[in-house]
Amino acid sequence: MSNKISLTRYLVEQQRTHGRIPPELRLLIEVVARACKRISISVNKGALGEVLGSAESENVQGEVQKKLDIIANEVLIEANEWGGHLAAMASEEMDSIYVVPNRFPQGEYLLMFDPLDGSSNIDVNVSIGTIFSVLRKRHDDPKIIDPVSEADFLQPGRQQVAAGYCVYGPQTTLVLTVGDGVAMFTLDREQGSWVLTQDQVTIPEDTKEFAINMSNMRHWDTPVKRYIDECLAGQEGPRGKDFNMRWIASMVADVHRILTRGGVFMYPWDKREPNKPGKLRLMYEANPMGWLVEQAGGAATNGRERILDMVPTQLHQRVSVILGSKNEVDLVTRYHLEAD
Ligand code: AHM
Ligand code: MG
């Protein structure tokens, strides 16, 4: 008899023992996980599945879409629209929200996703992933059920009820929080099932590793430059230790490394586009990753305030992101506040 814990069993225990998730949310998470399994199969086929390369379209952010961006988006929508748990979905790859069609029952949850994170790595066979976040539709008066609108999505990240990502790397790993710590599940390809391989993941408070795209250095703001200069000064500098650098250019893979062995990840605001608050998206990148990192004992800020406390005003809002080992994030945040 196997004593392996499957995703289903983990979720049932979260529902039964901890009373943390209602059955509808459990089923929703299972459907997302199933969709990730399908995306993983397409990713693995690569050139054999004719899924590499660009499509002839742009998304709402003006980025050229890759074929896999579109495939992953469709897989997530098709898997989730009929279950009866969702009111609507929103994605990096869709201009506006996708309301569950009338032919299906409407649920009370809202699902957001970046279907294929790290798009620039698709064609070069480097880890990529799917990021997701679940909110409950707001009801000011629980007796009134208004039609769902974009405004329902504009909730701060601290109100998420589930968040996670799936990284398609040498292994396919699903990382999840429902507010009871962070659990990691590895896809057993032979069985087709998700197996719990780490529970209560913790990020060390201190680190000697940072992740930032160094080619943007000349565009950074002073506090970011100060922090990285001090890391680069190594043992002889004010930090008194040598730092290592890693940058995969897939947020999922960089965050996965940080959840596994610590580190700090930064995609800060920079002077290239002064009117944009950052590159990454708040609702379906920074919020889910921020909550996962906090649940593992780390921290996530935009340099000045906690990411999960930010009240969004737009679905595709961008944000400056600093997350990972708590003491490093606190230091970078302090440098920003001191410079104000
Ligand atoms: P994407 O969602 O279109 O793939 O863009 C987000 C990605 C992140 O995964 C990653 O951290 C960042 O963009 C890399 O950006 P850059 O190419 O500027 O280093
Ligand atoms: Mg992304």
From TrEMBL:
Cofactor(s) annotated in UniProt: Mg(2+)
Family matches, as NCBIfam families: PRK09293.1-1, PRK09293.1-3, PRK09293.1-4
InterPro entries recorded: FBPase_C_dom (IPR044015), FBPase_class-1 (IPR000146), FBPase_N (IPR033391), FBPtase (IPR028343)
Family: Belongs to the FBPase class 1 family.
Pathway connected to this protein: Carbohydrate biosynthesis
Top-level class of the enzyme under EC nomenclature: hydrolase
KW Kinase (keyword) present: no
Top-level division of the source organism's lineage: Bacteria
Keyword vocabulary terms for this entry: Carbohydrate metabolism, Cytoplasm, Hydrolase, Magnesium, Metal-binding
Quaternary state and interactors: Homotetramer.
Protein's recorded name: Fructose-1,6-bisphosphatase class 1
Binding site for Mg(2+) 2: D114, D117, E285
The keyword Metal-binding belongs to this UniProt entry's keyword annotation: yes
Start and end residues of each Fructose-1-6-bisphosphatase class 1 C-terminal domain: 203-336
